[in-house]
Specification:
Elements: E1 2-9, E2 17-23, E3 30-39, H1 42-48, E4 59-60, E5 64-72, E6 84-87, E7 125-126, E8 132-135, E9 145-149, E10 153-156, H2 162-167, H3 171-182, E11 190-194, H4 198-209, E12 214-218, H5 222-230, E13 235-237, H6 241-251, E14 257-262, H7 266-275, E15 277-285, H8 300-306, E16 309-312, H9 320-332, E17 344-346, H10 351-359, E18 366-369
Parallel strand pairs: 4-8, 11-12, 11-14, 12-13, 14-15, 15-16, 17-18
Antiparallel strand pairs: 1-2, 1-4, 2-7, 3-5, 3-9, 3-18, 5-6, 6-10, 7-8
Helix pairs in contact: 3-4, 6-7
The chain binds zinc ion (2 copies).
One zinc ion binds near residues 41, 63 and 64.
């Protein structure tokens, strides 16, 4: 048994508190990981605010993480103590219909990641009163240490700094992958990215990687439009709603873009993005919508006659097991930026400040780093 400081989510709308939780030893297929860095992704914030419901509290949130394996269960294979790992927020069970085709981002266990227990259905964390504590995404990385199934860990080379590696657990594959694997942006095409936070900025650099000739970044924060240019955007639009659609049509001779990416607030941004898309083009949703929103209005006749496709992309629509090593290789070659994504580093006990900064639009990505 072991203790770990962790940021525990207990109440919707309240700050998360740093507590000591007890960790049981890893099960046969599990590994104990000392977290080195964990990104402050918006998804955890949606949970804290009750916009993405999880099945239980208390729960340790945090899913964009990298660290060092300290201890492994008896039946673990391919992971050893001392290995550096990136944790994946969808486990790859390896045996379901999807995993057998290499489509780990569609793993049948994916819907269980908001439940709280480990992959095997039991718990490894307890609070001071002995109550079971859940782990968001079967990871629970807002903590000094965590225990995850081997299905949630990918061994990486040791030369990649942990703070950069953590981003490749979620934001980078989500955004870069959406451009490469979902929309399959082709050289010379035009792209619109609505919302240039962590995901959106990675869509921008994914589109650049694909050879898009026109990359229009849209955000209501002028600083993010400046950042987007550094990541490859050719144009910046500070507008929303109908004004956004108008601005994009002006920039594309009235045609619209080949691919529009909805990276923030889909209920408000999907229709303007859809209408800024060329006939026959793609609209890709990469952002989470609060589960209280049950429909988005797109006129069906408009969908039919314009022959556009509306699609979702989780994890960049490609297996994290294939994508993560590939993205680290692209970083090494200088083909994608990682360091420039990090605006600020925080200690674990500054996590609420980190999310306040995210909410205020100050951060592209805040990262909690541990120095022990
Ligand atoms: Zn995330
Ligand atoms: Zn599976």
């Amino acid at each position: 048994m072991m203790e770990s400081r962790a940021a525990v989510f207990r109440e919707i709308g309240a700050a998360v508190a740093i507590e000591r939780v007890t960790l049981d030893p890893p099960g046969p297929t599990e590994v104990r990981v000392r977290i080195a860095a964990v990104g402050l992704c918006r998804t955890d914030y949606h949970v804290m605010r009750g916009e993405r419901r999880v099945a239980m509290q208390p729960m340790v949130l945090g899913h964009e993480a990298a660290g060092v394996v300290e201890h492994i269960g008896d039946a673990v294979s391919g992971i050893n103590a001392g290995d550096h790992v990136i944790l994946t927020f969808i486990p790859a069970c390896g045996t379901c219909h999807w995993c057998r085709q290499g489509l780990h981002h569609l793993c049948a266990e994916g819907p269980r990641i908001t439940q709280g227990p480990q992959l095997d259905g039991t718990y490894r964390r307890r609070d001071r009163d002995g109550h079971a504590v859940g782990a968001f995404c079967m990871i629970g990385a807002f903590a000094e240490r965590t225990i995850v199934d081997q299905a949630s860990a990918i061994v990486i080379d040791k030369d990649i700094p942990f703070d950069l590696a953590s981003l490749v657990a979620c934001g980078v594959p989500a955004g870069v992958g959406a451009a490469r694997h979902r929309a399959r942006v082709q050289p010379g095409e035009s792209v619109l990215v609505v919302g240039c936070g962590g995901d959106g900025m990675n869509v921008v650099q994914g589109a650049r990687l694909c050879g898009a000739s026109q990359i229009i970044a849209a955000d209501i924060a002028p600083a993010k439009l400046d950042w987007a240019r550094e990541f490859g955007a050719t144009h910046g639009v500070n507008a929303q709603g109908e004004a956004l659609t108008r601005a994009v049509l002006e920039l594309t001779s009235g045609i619209g873009v080949n691919h529009a990416f909805v990276c923030i607030d889909p209920p408000a941004t999907l229709l303007p993005a859809f209408r800024a898309t060329a006939k026959g083009g793609n609209v890709v949703v990469t952002a989470l919508t609060p589960d209280t929103v049950t429909e988005i209005k797109i006129p069906p006749l408009e969908l039919f006659v314009t022959q556009k496709a509306i699609m979702g992309a989780v994890y960049g629509f490609a297996s994290p097991r294939l994508q993560i090593p590939e993205l680290l290789g692209l970083y090494r070659k200088g083909a994608i930026k990682l360091r420039e994504l990090i605006t600020r580093r925080y200690r674990l006990d500054e996590i609420n400040q980190g999310y306040a900064d995210l909410d205020a639009g100050k951060n592209l990505r805040g990262v909690v780093v541990f120095d022990d």
